[in-house]
Specification:
eight-stranded antiparallel beta sheet; four-stranded mixed beta sheet; about 55% helix
Length: about 900
């Protein structure tokens, strides 16, 4: 009961309320440091707020000259949602229902408004609704969030009889329209999964709203309430709806998730449910985790998080499944789904695989584990819950001897040869622990986070998603994937491809150098599986080079004649090339949403086509022949441009020009050159289907032109994905860029094209201080980083020069922490060194930029050894800066 309030102290009440909250928050922090549970902290925080709300309500009533006792005044303040469950985190929103017995009068409205303003002044985040009792049920029918919030309520202060009447009305509504309530809950759950992903093993999950988070548990309990009126885990246990062991696991998980959410709020000083990489280590240490020789504290913490989230998600699926059966009603005999017998022990019902024999048979005959997976694969079915339990209870039977058994190896490899359905077998094997038991090396990467901003999932989830992407490629028909599908169909033994994909990241989790370490692990597994020498060589080569094709396609000049020959030597055979092509596609698709793009696919396909021609001796498409290009251009421009002008254009252009352009591009270049006669710069913009923008710039060449263009683009908030530089002998430069906006990671807005053109023209004329423009954008308009900026930039910085990568140019490769305007910094350094840029490839991986520039001296020669070493030092110095 709150103390009586002296209205003469009205001038200080706001200050007193804030002081009260600060004091109680500090007490909670002390309790947390002493090891208080998540449940205790949440309930104590809620109790503290209850006292404050009651205090405010009494004050508001007295200030309004309300003489009635607050207990039976026909008014009540009701806690809803998380506040109603007494699960408040330090910075949680306060969901409150201001309830009145009758329609709100001016006096009632004044009381509630005063309460609202006092709570705001106390710096509480408030989510409130005001309803008369008769309005609540009609209100929840039109407001799904209000409907679910009213599942969990508590009377904080006011008229208890009025609150009892509300509860009775809500229960009558549930009994009458329970199915509608369940549909609302199911839609909210589905929308949550669509928004946040239905995956548990996200690299940066949301402790409240991701699958397996607190909201997943809330939705499950709401579904149980809609079905049977039970609101808590304890009620479900009491009525036999969950087993004691499951209750214990989920209750433990619930407490853990509450503690994690509380720590996230305290660490960030605000309402934060997103477990970003930059706070995971801090939370881990506050929860008592410490690093070991193989695992960081954050990795141990997140593994526990995923285990608890998995328990919550399994309960959610179980309760929702039961509610679906209940509200769908019993099926009639002629629509009932009957079990289809597969063999003497396995059967199928509703795409669920069941085991009808004695569960002890799994311990006696381990081949049943693989039979179950094979049947699930063949019938596109999932393991039923009883079958999962049978498998999990008997995993100890999979021992060293079974792992070396050739019969088990054949069974496992047969699963991997199930083209298009391998994920269907491996995912339930992983979820039951079967896959990790048979391949202990895979178990070591289970629930292992990846410490970068590139991967969206844990290592094991990434691997399974990559395998499922390969499955989907087998079934898909999009024209853009035709070359990939053709390569997949040519693979001699698709089981080796799936095996390589399963093994490709096993070296992660033990520091840098995961590829050589993973290659050694893969060698041991191939030996254990009994692969022949040729098959083993292919798998090892795929694991060893699983990032190579993506790296080369995005970072190298693909028209450079030496490139395909060098890559072909590393690949070794057409079969490995086909597999690596498809594996690269699947690997990129498994990284996260939108990581694969048409632009990356185009680059990858071009590298594949050129390397294939090298391996097979095929002749590349005739469009690469300069005469064929000329003929196409002459035919298309007949009567518009003279043949002599077209011939002159090719004669003045670099030798490699004809290999880098299409006939359509040549036409556009000739048009830009014509425009240049009356302007200092001519531009051509084109939106591409892969959400990037192509920009071709034609201007009179001068030293530093590329750097100034890169600077203007950086100062306009545009990032360069790739660049092609061609300069004619008469001094006309034709530079082509692939661009996207920094803020949206999509194509450049059309309404900005003309403004950017004007800036380019001024810079090319020398009217702009480009460096000042870039710095102004960086300090005023650059989007904030998702994590703290490093104070120095030497950690991942490397610069290398190579004269063997290209016939006529020197390759300069730069790896540096990614920042907007980095391409400008590098090109400015190259310009200052007196170099000409012939071609540029700009890529970003994880949090690093990986940029490659093909350069020559002003005379058009390669750099000598001494110049290369000097250039490396100059660029390292230019890129090693201290952030503001």
């Amino acid at each position: 009961m709150a103390p009586a309030i002296n209205s003469s102290r009205a001038g200080t009440i706001n200050r007193e309320l804030r002081a009260f909250i600060r004091l109680e928050d500090e007490r909670l922090r002390i309790a947390d440091r002493l090891g208080a549970s998540g449940q205790w902290i949440a309930r104590t925080r809620s109790f503290t707020i209850d006292l404050l709300v009651e205090y405010v309500f009494q004050y508001a009533c007295r200030a309004a000259n309300e003489s009635r006792q607050t207990q039976d005044c026909g008014l009540a303040i009701v806690a809803m949602g998380g506040y109603g469950r007494a699960e408040l985190a330090p910075f949680s929103d306060l969901d409150i229902l201001f309830l009145s017995a009758t329609q709100a009068t001016a006096q009632i409205s004044k009381i509630f408004e005063r309460c609202q303003h006092l709570l705001w002044d106390a710096r509480l985040s408030l989510g409130q609704k005001s309803f008369a009792l008769s309005e609540c049920v009609p209100g929840l029918r039109t407001d799904p969030h209000f409907q679910t919030a009213l599942v969990n309520t508590r009377l904080v202060t006011g008229d208890s009889t009025l609150y009892d009447r509300l509860i009775a009305a809500l229960d009558r509504e549930r009994q009458k329209n329970g199915k509608l309530l369940f549909e609302t809950i199911r839609q909210e759950r589905n929308q949550l999964y669509q928004t946040r992903s239905a995956a548990i093993y996200l690299q940066e999950p949301n402790v409240k709203e991701s699958a397996g988070g607190l909201r997943d548990l809330h939705c499950a309990l709401w579904a149980a309430y809609a079905q049977d009126g039970h609101k808590t885990l304890e009620e479900l246990l009491e009525h036999g709806l969950i087993e004691a062991e499951q209750y214990k696991r989920v209750a433990t998980a619930h407490d853990f998730l509450l503690r994690v959410r509380q720590q996230a709020h305290w660490v960030t000083g605000r309402k934060t449910d997103h477990l970003s990489l930059d706070i995971q280590d801090t939370i881990a240490r506050k929860l008592g985790y410490s690093s070991s020789s193989h695992l960081q504290a954050s990795e141990k913490f997140m593994r526990d998080y995923y285990r608890h989230a998995r328990d919550v998600h399994q309960l959610s699926g179980s309760l929702f499944g039961r509610a679906v059966d209940r509200f769908n009603g019993s099926r009639r005999w002629f629509t009932a789904s009957r079990r289809e017998r597969i063999d003497g022990r396995f059967s199928l019902q509703d795409r669920q695989l069941h085991f009808d024999g004695n569960p002890d048979l799994f311990a006696e005959d381990p081949s049943l584990f693989f039979e179950a997976a094979a049947f699930a694969q063949a019938h596109d079915a999932d393991f039923s819950r009883p079958l999962r339990d049978d498998i999990s209870r008997n995993l100890a039977r999979i021992d060293h001897d079974l792992r070396k058994s050739q019969k088990a190896s054949r069974s496992f490899l047969d699963l991997l040869r199930g083209r298009g359905y391998v994920g269907r077998a491996l995912r339930p094997m992983h979820e039951t622990g079967l896959l990790g038991r048979y391949l202990p090396e895979f178990d070591r990467i289970s629930m292992l986070i990846q410490h970068d901003l590139y991967h969206h999932y844990t290592v094991d989830e990434h691997t399974l998603r990559a395998i499922e992407a390969l499955d989907a490629l087998h079934h898909s028909r999009p024209a853009g994937l035709a070359r990939l599908r053709a390569a997949l169909n040519e693979v001699d033994d698709v089981g080796l491809l799936y095996l390589a994909l399963l093994l490709h990241d096993l070296g992660k989790g033990r520091g840098r150098g995961h590829i050589p370490r993973g290659t050694r692990i893969a060698e041991r597994i191939c030996d254990r599986l009994g692969l022949d020498s040729d098959s083993k060589t292919k798998v090892i080569r795929l694991v060893k080079h699983h990032v190579l094709m993506a790296h080369i396609s995005q970072r190298r000049d693909l028209r450079e004649p030496r490139l395909a020959k060098h890559f072909a030597a590393q690949v070794g055979s057409l079969d490995v090339l086909n597999m690596l092509f498809v594996l690269t596609y699947a690997d990129l698709n498994g990284v996260g949403p939108a990581v694969w793009s048409d632009w990356k696919g185009t680059l990858l396909e071009e590298l594949y086509t050129r390397t294939r021609a090298t391996l097979t001796g095929e002749t590349l498409a005739v469009r690469d022949n300069i005469n064929w290009i000329k003929e196409q251009v002459i035919a298309q421009l007949a009567g518009k441009v003279s043949i002599s002008d077209i011939e002159r254009h090719f004669a003045l252009s670099p030798h490699r020009y004809a290999e880098t352009v299409t006939a359509e591009e040549v036409q556009s270049h000739l048009g830009l050159i014509k425009q240049l006669g009356s302007n200092s710069v001519a531009c051509l913009w084109q939106d591409r289907q892969d959400f990037t923008t192509a920009l071709t710039i034609c201007a009179s060449d001068r030293h530093g032109l590329f750097a100034d263009i890169a600077g203007v683009l950086a100062a306009s908030g545009i990032e360069i994905l790739s660049a092609e530089v061609n300069t004619r002998e008469d001094g006309i430069a034709i530079d082509s860029f692939t661009l996207r906006q920094v803020t949206t990671h999509r194509s450049v807005d059309r309404h900005r094209w003309s403004m950017i053109e004007r800036s380019l023209e001024s810079a090319i004329k020398g009217e702009h201080d480009v460096a000042a423009l870039v710095e102004r954008w960086r300090t005023r308009q650059a989007p904030r980083r998702a994590q703290p900026v490093m104070t120095t930039r030497t950690g991942h910085l490397s610069v290398g020069c190579d004269n063997d990568a290209a016939e006529a140019t020197t390759l300069v490769e730069v790896r540096a922490p990614d920042e907007h305007g980095l391409a400008y910094k590098i090109t400015r350094g190259l310009t200052a060194f007196g170099l000409e840029i012939v071609c540029a490839r700009i890529a970003t991986e994880k949090s690093d930029a990986l940029d490659a520039f093909y350069v020559t001296t002003v005379e058009g020669a390669k750099l000598d050894e001494a110049a290369m070493r000097d250039l490396e030092k100059v660029l390292v110095k230019a890129l090693t800066v201290v952030s503001d």
